[in-house]
Specification:
The chain is α+β, with helices and mostly antiparallel strands. Helix content is 29%, strand content 32%. The chain is globular.
Length: 274
């Protein structure tokens, strides 16, 4: 593999390359060129990762607006199967941050599955985003294959790109994390979450277990995957309702990793202009 280079994509021909890679990555119809082209002409941003002249990854975001504020909604991040797990996704996000700042953005948002701890680790422990918005069944229930009957819950990442949290890679210090949750292995050798009878968070921080291999779990035991979905939904929504935000992922040698939550008000998210 040659050195991967990044560049902003703007032309019809480049949008067509993105379409082709979309179909390879997701195996489904791609976003029309007229839509992506219009987006990048009106505050959107598409960045391509190239190995020589081959497009091997891309990030796609469009302009968002809410509560009288604009932000970049980072909708898609795709990497060619032959180039995955090589750090290209992180490089694309880092380039996205640089260009978005130049465009005047202070906030970038995107969503991910709450049970995909590998994605969570990139989003909060490597990129220093946070999450305190939980969206139930964001895209409706999936109807085919291993995803049948599984609600498409999502966490929304807030990436405050000009904040101390991001610029100085801020992490909380001297926080005592409570962990009232236990796990055990099922007959299918899958981790199962054992909830406490009551959960009323009042401490400095909390750790919540999530399965390491959720895709494999969905194949091996769809019932267990659905159980995790509903349990984690309730736990995280409880934490968010009490003012906590997801800030880090602690990796382990167990079948689960641990999401770490602290009070959002303790996180330095203000931009320099504020």
């Amino acid at each position: 593999m040659n050195q991967i280079t990044m560049r902003v994509l703007k032309t019809v021909e480049e949008m067509q390359l993105v379409q082709q890679l979309e179909e390879i990555v997701w195996g489904m119809g791609a976003i029309p060129v007229h839509q992506t082209l219009t987006a990048v002409k009106n505050g959107g941003l598409i960045i391509g990762a190239f190995d020589d002249e081959q497009l091997v990854g891309f990030s796609y975001g469009f302009a968002g607006y809410q509560n009288k504020e604009t932000y970049l909604c980072s909708h898609m991040l795709g990497i060619h199967p032959d180039y995955q797990l090589q750090g290209i996704g992180k490089k694309l996000k880092e380039e996205q941050l640089i260009v978005a700042k130049e465009m005047g953005y202070k906030l970038i948002t995107w969503t991910f599955d709450p049970l995909e701890s590998r994605n969570a680790y990139l989003n909060v422990s490597k990129l220093y985003g946070i999450a305190n918005t939980y969206i139930e069944n964001c895209y409706g229930e999936m109807t085919g294959g291993i995803n049948a009957g599984l609600p498409t819950d999502r966490l929304q990442i807030e990436w405050w790109i000009a904040s101390e949290r991001v610029e100085k890679k801020w992490m909380p210090s001297n926080v005592s994390y409570d962990n009232p949750f236990q796990t055990e292995l099922s007959e299918q050798n899958q981790p199962v979450l054992v909830e406490p009878h009551t959960f009323e968070p009042t401490g400095q921080g909390y750790e919540v277990p999530v399965p390491k291999q959720f895709q494999e779990m969905k194949k091996a035991s769809p019932e267990t995957a659905l159980q995790w979905r509903l349990q984690i939904r309730k736990i995280i929504q409880t934490l968010f309702s009490k003012g906590y935000a997801l800030i880090a992922v602690r990796k382990t040698n167990e079948p689960v990793n641990y999401y770490q939550f602290v009070q959002r008000t303790t996180i330095p998210l203000q931009t320099k202009e504020n």
